Amino acid sequence: MEGILPGVFPEWLGDPGFADRHGVRFPYVVGEMANGIATTDMVVAAARGGFLGVFGAAGLTAQQVEEALGRIRRELGPGPGWAVNLIHSPTEPAVERAVVELLLRERVPSVSVSAFMELTPSVLRLALSGISERPDGSVHRPVRVLAKVSRPETAKAFMTPAPAALLEQLVGRGLLNKEEARLAARVPVAEDITAEADSGGHTDNRPLTALLPRLLALRDSVARVHGYTVRVGAAGGLGTPHALAAAFAAGAAYAVTGSVNQTTRESGISEQARALLAAADLPDMVMAPAADMFELGVKVQVLGKGTMFAQRARLLHRLYDQYDSLDQLDEKTRRRLERDIFRAPLADIWEQTEKFWSVRDQGEIERAASDPKHRMALLFRWYLGQSSHWAIRGEQGRAVDFQLWCGPALGAFNHWVAGSFLADTRQRSVVQVGLNLLEGTACLARAHQLRCHGVQLPAQGWTFRPRPLRQAA
What pLDDT is recorded for position 5? Predict the structure, then answer.
């Protein structure tokens, strides 16, 4: 008995509505990496390759983000096909508000919001400003919002319409008008929900095979109540075609990669940091305190092999938990901090910290003046913040302190590309990485179809080796 099974193309993976809505060819997102590690060059290359590229705006000032938007628009024009990240800043709400103001003023087409534990007035303003009713009765939304979440309760908040109390607050402050608030009751806060599993940076370390089905079921229950549906994509742990194929087979509308893109030539980290990441394997990732949510005890996933950042950051957080002020530190501990971690007297580090916050948020300095524990937290956060910038700059003598956000997907990716042209980081472009992942995923999807039709394939039928692929015009 003979037959022909049609091929599977990368464009057919996922939900075609995602590509239509964001103006891209593939259901594939080159995800945000903070401090501009997901550079403007990465965003432009991704967009030209048919992917949705997200600029890593977290940790940058509004002025830096504005300059980056100008560069992206000069390269890509006014259309869709690219995005910017908005990260939740619970300790710096003024920064969050300033970035939202900028994104709205510059009419950024898509925004990936991340690390939100609850809805804030700022994120609602971003999602709902400018919405209007079309002649056919549907709701037009000028900003396409993707919400990256790892908990069902957070996902539900973004899948459902905005709470009336927050809408009233925004209308009362003149940040939304009454028509926008009325239409908000008919739409979800975000049209796309990204299920963030075991990813680099901020993560709950959830397995994708548990998280994604849970959010897909939640999407269906929300659809029965509200009469609309949202798309659910997958992120975290996606470093090989097998991982992407599993995500799409489980129902993901799109896939988001992050850690693997740090090793590409478009990423905003130093060659030294890139080499450390390219040598990483599955067991080489650890959890460490997060700089932006240090006092809340939030952790991020980072590279453990080749750097002592995680151990030193954990030490600082233990001291923060144990003591109420820097004055309580014993002399031995103080000398250790000044010698091994800060490499300067604590008084000098505080002077730098005070200078930074006097520009960024004077309120932090005022609070530190009356709260010695907060002063200690700001000083310890100096190290956590600088460690990422040292990795970006390739700071001489500070490689042991590099903070490199990554998840186990990177180890899987490095193993997959070993012996191929992508083993050389100089050959790793964001487009070649994305095209190879998608092409391999399509091949595996077809192999799975053949097996479901009773065709037994040899082992090589389930293997895709990276190869130079031509970018379509």
Answer: 76
Positions in the chain whose pLDDT score sits under 50: none
**Residue appearing with tokens 């891209």:** 24
- The pTM for the full model equals 0.94
CB-count burial class (<10 Å; 0-12, 13-18, 19+) for 63: exposed
Question: What are the percentages of helix, strand and coil residues in the chain, rounded to 5?
Answer: 50, 10, 35
Give me the phi and psi of 232, to 5 degrees please. Answer: -120, 120
Calculated CA dihedral for residues 401, 403, 406, 408, nearest 10 degrees = 30
Angle, CA of 98, 100 and 102, to the nearest 5°:
70
Q: Which residues contact 269 (CB under 8 A, 6 or more apart)?
A: 37, 262, 277, 391, 392, 404
Greatest CA separation found in the chain? Answer: 83
Strands 285-289 and 299-303: antiparallel
**Among candidates 99, 49, 96, 45, which has minimal Cα distance to 72?**
45
Residue in the block written with tokens 């680099």: 200
Place of tokens 């992917």: 51
| pLDDT of amino acid 266 | 97
Residue 29, beta-bridge partner list: 52, 256
**Contact predicate 191/222, CB 8 Å:** no
